[in-house]
UniProtKB/TrEMBL annotation:
GO terms classed as biological process: attachment of mitotic spindle microtubules to kinetochore; protein localization to kinetochore
One GO term describing the cellular component: kinetochore
Chain ranges passing through the membrane: none
InterPro entries xref list: Sos7, Sos7_CC
Domain Kinetochore protein Sos7 coiled-coil: 63-136
Top-level taxon of origin: Eukaryota
UniProt keywords, alphabetically: Coiled coil
Name of the protein: Kinetochore protein Sos7 coiled-coil domain-containing protein
One Pfam family this sequence matches: Sos7
Length: 355
């Protein structure tokens, strides 16, 4: 009997000496001095690496799982031994085992459902985290934009207040500014039209000046030819009168003035009894001057006018009544003036059209 009573006591002493309880480990953990660890920069650099930290965490999780398994194993052994050596051991039947199994399965099923829900929550968190971050960035940008716009609004109000103080009443309204702008636009249009008219007149003046300069050059050439002819005649005649050159210049100038007044371009003797006169006539229906060629035929070796023909702007004119009347009267100047008057009055164009 004493042997059966000493056996449980010996088993209890063995279990106490075996240090199977986790409480001793917790006491050791609390009494451990962590300040003695080496806090070198290399260790800090190693712990700052995410891969090293992840492997360290995985190792610690594995160690804790093993420690948990050992705890459960030792706890089960402890309960089993206590149940065996206890005087009032509970009755364990198949029904109680089945009940425990069902409770365990129910707990496992609940645990599995909780794990599935947890996995779904984690997946939702992974999915929604970028969206939440994007919304957060948008909200932060909109907040900064609203702040900047508020500052700009305050600055604009301050600037408007300063403008109102700098420009008191009466101020320029939109309608007044629009009316002023319309008036200025009309004035600018008028000035632009006037400028175009002036430019056109300048171009016309330049053209006329160019034509007159050409005539001047032509007259200078004629003057040089006449001077050369006069010098040649003076040498041939042996006349050294110094007044001859001055008289020639005066005569040439008078002839040029007369030709300019009569719009006479040139006079050319085609033969001994034929004289061709070329005039420039200003037409009322055209801005450009037209050419009129008057050909006079005389009876040979006399000054008697025999006939005349008129060609105006490349078209022969039929002026039979005018020509016949002046030919019968032997009035050469009258014929010239009559033809020029008819051409300047515009009758020449109608006669040319009729012919």
């Amino acid at each position: 009997m004493s042997t059966s009573l000493d056996a449980p006591k010996q088993l209890q002493d063995t279990l106490d000496n075996a240090k199977l309880h986790i409480f001793n480990t917790r006491t050791q953990l609390k009494s451990y001095h962590f300040e003695d660890l080496d806090n070198s920069t290399s260790a800090e650099g190693a712990l700052s690496d995410p891969a090293i930290v992840a492997s360290d965490v995985a190792a610690q999780i594995s160690f804790l799982r093993k420690l948990k398994f050992q705890y459960l194993e030792q706890n089960a052994k402890d309960k089993y031994v206590k149940t065996i050596v206890s005087d009032d051991a509970p009755l364990i039947t198949a029904a109680s085992n089945e009940e425990i199994r069902q409770r365990n399965e129910e707990k496992k099923r609940n645990l599995k459902e909780i794990k599935v829900k947890l996995a779904e929550k984690q997946e939702d968190v992974r999915t929604l985290a970028p969206l939440v971050e994007e919304d957060y960035e948008k909200a932060r940008s909109m907040t900064s934009l609203a702040t900047s716009l508020s500052a700009k609004i305050l600055d604009a109000r301050l600037a408007l207040t300063r403008l109102r103080q700098a420009h008191p009443q009466p101020r320029l309204t939109i309608s007044t500014a629009t009316a002023t702008l319309d008036t200025q636009v009309a004035q600018m249009q008028e000035l632009d039209d006037e400028l175009q008219g002036l430019e056109k007149r300048i171009d016309e003046s330049k053209g006329k000046l160019k034509a007159e300069m050409g005539e001047v050059e032509q007259l200078r050439g004629v003057e040089r030819e006449r001077a050369a002819e006069l010098a040649l005649v003076g040498k041939e005649g042996g006349d050294d009168d110094p007044r001859l050159s001055g008289l020639y210049d005066w005569l040439q100038t008078a002839l040029n003035i007369q030709c300019s007044l009569l719009s006479l371009k040139s006079s050319h003797a085609e033969s001994e009894n034929e004289l061709r006169l070329t005039y420039y006539i200003d037409s009322p229906s055209s801005t450009a001057a037209k050419e009129l060629v008057l050909t006079l035929l005389f009876i040979p070796n006399t000054r008697q006018l025999a006939s005349a023909s008129v060609r105006y702007d490349g078209v022969d004119l039929e002026l039979g009544d005018v020509v016949d009347a002046h030919v019968q009267a032997n009035d050469t100047p009258g014929l010239v003036w009559a033809v020029l008057a008819r051409a300047r009055s515009g009758c020449g164009e109608s006669d040319a059209v009729m012919s």
